[in-house]
Known about the structure:
This protein is of the alpha+beta class. It has 2 domains: about 1-135, Gcn5-related N-acetyltransferase (GNAT) (Aminopeptidase); about 145-310, 3-Layer(aba) Sandwich (Aminopeptidase), CATH 3.40.630.30. It is about 30% helix and about 25% strand. The protein contains 9 helices and 14 strands. It has helices at about 10-20, 30-35, 85-105, 125-130, 160-170, 180-195, 205-215, 260-275, 295-305, and strands at about 1-5, 45-50, 55-60, 60, 65-70, 80, 105-110, 135-145, 175-180, 220-225, 230-235, 240-250, 280-285, 310-320. It has a 10-stranded mixed beta sheet with strand order 4-5-7-14-8-13-12-11-10-9, sandwiched between helices.
Amino acid sequence: xxxxxxxxxxxxxxxxxxxxxxxxxxxxxxxxxxxxxxxxxxxxxxxxxxxxxxxxxxxxxxxxxxxxxxxxxxxxxxxxxxxxxxxxxxxxxxxxxxxxxxxxxxxxxxxxxxxxxxxxxxxxxxxxxxxxxxxxxxxxxxxxxxxxxxxxxxxxxxxxxxxxxxxxxxxxxxxxxxxxxxxxxxxxxxxxxxxxxxxxxxxxxxxxxxxxxxxxxxxxxxxxxxxxxxxxxxxxxxxxxxxxxxxxxxxxxxxxxxxxxxxxxxxxxxxxxxxxxxxxxxxxxxxxxxxxxxxxxxxxxxxxxxxxxxxxxxxxxxxxx
Length: 321
């Protein structure tokens, strides 16, 4: 295979390939990655051609220590491929490793999207990486709701959760609207993150820029009472299979109104109607723990109330030199 380093003239070809691929997501698009300020990441994206035909792409960065990471500035990275056979998957990995040796790359970290993001389910890529000596460096756990298996959204939830949602629907204390008012939502998000000794992944300006670039791929569902916004959910349209809840936040002084329960019911209902197979509610880690793999048991308990299941987001690692 021939490997070409990405340049802006290849953007249309890159993004078209990702959109038609088996495992590509919004996070693999150059249209997404370009929201970062120039120079923020030492991007080193690669395209893999066989007989002149694009067969794979790899977004990533290469730092001064010659460590290659994929993704850089995104949630998911690693190789994006079509529904290719195993032998060709090996060709992609082998050609990349040859490239690494020639370029003097010492280590490689690859974090792919969980398997539910694939159009046709396959572990060819994971098995090929393991066969070629990559090992698991870490795992995070995400929780996913299987929308395509639901006959009735409300009935799929735990009994107590069903009762809470019915109460919010009867009392009309909350209203739900799709909104572009990120200025209203962002202070709520910051306050929530502080409670867990964390900060939002994006600044307000970055979130607005992403919305401007990606349009309806990023949406805000805002929850209001009579006075003001009390919570919200920001979703990312990752691909045709999966909708990702990237931010979920509320004002805790309004917790008695159960805004998150109501908004989760709303977003699950909408996602199912829109034809997604899965709703990914995001990683469920304890950000205060020293070990980054430590699960947040309270958060997992909450997500399981909506009939979610845990899946792994794994990072592969290999030391070359």
